[in-house]
Write a structure and sequence with these properties.
Helix content is 42%, strand content 15%. With 462 residues, the chain is α/β, with parallel strands linked by helices. The strands form two sheets. Strands 3-4-5-2-1-6 form a six-stranded mixed sheet. A hairpin with an 8-residue loop joins β1 and β2.
Amino acid sequence: MSQSPASDTIFALSSGMPPAAIGVVRVSGPAAGAAPLPWTASWSYRPWPAAGAALKALAGHLPPPRRAALAALKDADGAALDRALVLWFPGPATATGEDLAELHLHGGRAVVAAVEAALAAMPGLRRAEAGEFTRRAFENGRIDLAEAEGLADLLAAETESQRVQALGMASGHVSRAVAAWQERLLGLMAGAEAELNFADEDDVEVGEGVAQRLIAGMGDLAGELGEWLARPAAEVIAEGVSVVIAGPPNAGKSTLINALAQRELAIVSPIEGTTRDVIETPLALDGIAMRFSDTAGIRGEGADAIEAIGIDRAKAAVEGADILLWLGPAKDAPGHPRCITIAAQVDRWRGDAAAEAEAAHADLTLSAATGEGMDRLHKYIVEMARTLLPREGEAALRQRQRVALAEAKGWLTIEPESREANDLILLAERLRLAATALDRVTGRAGVEEMLDALFGRFCIGK
């Protein structure tokens, strides 16, 4: 996002692309309600109040704040544009922290285009850039960085688990926790400063044991941050749980991923080594986003040079998997912490005593071709995936937030017997650095380098 002046007045369609039942065009900035527009000759000038200038130019009147009113919208030449509901929200108590106007139009392409053209013709107005409305909300203190990240995830949510997690973040779940930690830090910092600067004052409680109390408070807070860091990462929800299907050649891996995807995703052939690369597809099971990967058959010898590359990639996928579906002898399964061993192709070997004895060691048997056992596999995967997700009411942290919390935890962690434990100046500095790290979670410090990347994820009307 380019650094356009914050004093500009911006407008954009903030609802879905037309045609639609309603098209909502949003206008934010000084000309939406802070100063009269410098009208060109084609726009008749009136001594209107500063607020609502752009809205008045189209509607001819300014409705009462925060109340919808029906208006006939006209362009600079007086030509009718639409009959629409209009709303005016004087700042700073608005979504962006600025004066804000909304035009609820009939959602046809021509109507929206005509109104946008009329707005673009007004001096001082321009089309918004991607994410600019939300960035102004952040810069004007209406939301913090954690809430903005949650809103970005909410806009991108495709599954129920993504929606719930993003809504909690956008609603300030993490921000409230950070505010509570910062308040506790301030109390500890005040105690250190009192001892350092006001030890000779009669009304200040100081004396022996101050350092020990600080260390105890720092330890309690570090423990709480550690509990948050132990929670599942938000990326697991946003990007999907990685489920890798692996096993020896011709174990039925490609048939299984085709059955899960309900389409011919991978080539199925009796020829060993048909699958040469990792084939990935996104799926959602019970509202949980997942990424299923089919891999090359893993074998120790007999592979040509290209297949050997595929086997190496398969092994790497197994190591990075959140959940492993192993189609092969259970005794050969990799030592993965979340591995489901599967005796596949049961329709082929049922009645074979040796095969049935081997299958008895697997977690389940199935036939992707006939559908037998697929419901049980579905249940297994979902139950295991839920262990990777936050519990109900918990918030997961993004990688950026986790790094900041880990840094804060590091500054708060101190050995009671260390030299620093008896140095109040060093303890006070550790508290200050921990507070600075926490500030980065909500965007109070050190985040300029990533703001453009974040707000560039939003659509134009956000």
